[in-house]
Amino acid sequence: MIKHPLIFTDLDGTLLDHYSYSFEAAKTTLAYCSEQRIPVIANTSKTCAELIHIRKEINNSCPFIVENGAAIYLPKKLFPTAPEGCIDDGALWQFSFSKNRQHWVDLLHHLKPRFQSLYTSFSNISIEDISQLTGLNLKQAERASQRQFGEPVLWHGNREDKALFVEAIEQLGGHVLQGGRFLHVGGSANKGTAMQWLKNIYTQQSPEIAFETIALGDSDNDIDMLESADHAVVIASPIHDPLALKRTKNTIFTQSFGPIGWAESLSELLNIPEQSLLEKEK
């Protein structure tokens, strides 16, 4: 049994349904975790603006990680003293692993002559088009556009051209992660690095507790997090094959998609009494 879990979860396609963005199937499990004071930490490609809104929807007040590990936000109510390297961001402390968005926009501009017709930068896509591409409503799309640490691109080329594009980005000091819908251009930080940093912060705050990390994800940009967690849950996807991981120990591959698989796997890992979940459905 996992006595002191820290749950790190991807959102789109994992806690949120890939098509509808609903978390309905995970509501009772989220309520159980909240009641038991088990941190559920979003570790996502989404922006800070999106997370502030989503956390209200799912009644979550935990720290969160944005833009594929580029930055971590800690609520001051939970962490009254700023960890080393953090800056003040209102009600939150912010720790960043990445250069700002403009750096990556400029880098992409440098490559534009070479890959002119093969991609479209997020900053050149209208809010209406972001909405159409993602299925988000206009308000959600506007929050998604507020990138701070990286630049997503919509890829139009073939696999061979994409490999050349990734190589060119890396030669200029950047890194590319494949998300569910976009390529994410940014620094070398990833969800796994951010997860370990935040686990260390929890350990520094409570050194008497042996925390264990549970990571849940469904896309390529979740692999670093899944490989480095104490327990990994690969969520089945309706749009691609299950992720291939190097690890074999403490690894679950769900049969159910999205939030259904999310809830089923955590019920198993946390040994949640069925009666507890049934009571929360009432």
Return the structural class: alpha/beta
Q: Could you name the CATH class of the largest domain?
A: Alpha Beta
Radius of gyration: 19 Å
Q: What would you give as the CATH superfamily of the largest domain?
A: HAD superfamily/HAD-like
Q: What form results from the Cα inertia axes?
A: globular
Protein name: HAD-IIB family hydrolase
Keywords: Hydrolase, Magnesium, Metal-binding
GO biological process, one term: mannosylglycerate biosynthetic process
GO molecular function: magnesium ion binding; mannosyl-3-phosphoglycerate phosphatase activity
Describe the structure.
The chain is of the alpha/beta class. The chain has 2 domains: 5-97 and 190-281, Rossmann fold, CATH 3.40.50.1000; 101-186, Putative mannosyl-3-phosphoglycerate phosphatase, domain 2 (Threonyl-tRNA Synthetase, Chain A, domain 2). Helix content is 35%, strand content 21%. It is built from 10 helices and 13 strands. It has helices at 27-35, 48-57, 101-111, 127-134, 138-144, 159-171, 191-205, 223-228, 258-269, 274-281, and strands spanning 5-9, 40-43, 64-66, 71-75, 87-89, 92-96, 119-121, 151-155, 175-178, 183-186, 212-217, 231-236, 251-257. The strands form 2 sheets. It has a 9-stranded mixed beta sheet. The chain has a 4-stranded antiparallel beta sheet with strand order 7-8-10-9. Strand 11, helix 8 (223-228) and strand 12 form a beta-alpha-beta unit. Helix 4 crosses helix 5. The longest helix has 15 residues, at 191-205. The two termini are 27 Å apart. The mean pLDDT is 94. One of its GO terms (cellular component) is cytosol. GO terms for molecular function: magnesium ion binding; mannosyl-3-phosphoglycerate phosphatase activity. This is HAD-IIB family hydrolase. It comes from Echinimonas agarilytica. InterPro entries: HAD-like_sf, HAD-SF-IIB-MPGP, HAD-SF_hydro_IIB, HAD_sf.
